[in-house]
Amino acid sequence: MSEQTAAEGRRRPPVVAVVTLLTVILTVLLIAFAWPAARSEPRDLPVAVAGPQPAVTQVAAGLEQAMPGGFEIKPVTDRAAAVQAIEDRDVYGAIIADPQAPEVLTASAGGPAVAQILTQLASRMAAQDPSAAPKVTDVVPLPADDPRGAGLAAGALPLVLGGILAAALLTQLVQAGARRMAGALAFAVSGGLALAAVLQFWLGSFEGNYLANSGVIAMSIAAISLTLLGLEWLIGTAGLGLGAATMMLLGNPLSGLTSAPEMLPSGWGSLGQLLPPGAAGTALRSVSFFDGAGAGQSFVVLSCWLAAGLALCGLGALRSRQRVVQAHPERSPVTV
């Protein structure tokens, strides 16, 4: 064996190390995507109850017995107030504790999984007392073309991948930092228009204003891609990898798009809403089906990520200029 071959053999990691690393990566991927789904259950889901105080207390006790810790009860005066609370996204549904006309109000557009749980509770109430079987009304239903909300749930992954791929390709194909940023913003706009068009006009998963839906998607893609560009600009490939892993392994599975943030393991749902995928999902539901109600926090989160991405890119540009000056003190850098 030649000296060169021997040197190459020494530089290569052993097969056991490679297999171990691949096993760890596979396990992490499984945990990241399967654990939130496997542990999904109601946790302090806000639900309104309308009726006199004794009836509200009785309903609250029944819900606690059926699903301990599953619901956060918000008393309201009447059915109209319950409907308003649902449309304002203050609650996911409501129970009308009226002995003459019991009713369960749901909003499948706000979360199909929660609507299904409330519908099952209504069936359980009917089984216990057929004479007081509640009527089930979907106050804010999903579109007829996508009654399960599958399009919106499936759209989370392309949204995250779009931001990651934009940052990865721009760092490889475009040298000037300012042009990378311009490319990321341009792609965010075109990607938002394209994804919203597919989801709204082809799959029928969205309602509301097309440009507003596109804008939410564009904000999310821009927030992810600019943040990753800035991390790569500052600390290189490791920064890009760290940012991509955060968005893919935390942001996507913790977005709550397939269920609801409150149904994820305690604390993780709140964390997911502080990342672009979760904030974008909540904002999309609000803009598409609830006239923007309840989207305030999500837009703040997306705006903060956008600002952070721009700040990271600015720091990266400053650092690049300093390096050029140190390497060529006689020159003034014009492009970074």
Architecture overview:
With 336 residues, this protein is an alpha/beta fold. It folds into three domains: 3-38; 45-138; 150-327, no CATH class. 64% of the residues lie in helices and 7% in strands. The chain is built from 13 helices and five strands. It has a five-stranded mixed beta sheet, with helices on both faces. Strand 4 (103-106), helix 5 and strand 5 (135-138) form a beta-alpha-beta unit. Helix 7 (156-173) packs across helix 9. The longest helix has 32 residues, at 296-327. It is elongated and about 85 Å long. The two termini are 46 Å apart. The mean pLDDT is 88.
Number of E-type strands = 5
Strand proportion: 5-15%
CA radius of gyration is: 25 Å
How far from one another are the termini? 46 Å
Number of helices: 13
The poorly predicted ranges are none
The string of secondary-structure elements, in order, is: HHEHEHEEHEHHHHHHHH
Main β sheet profile: 5 strands, mixed
Fraction in helix: 55-70%
* Overall 3D form: elongated
Instruction: Report the average pLDDT across residues.
Output: 88
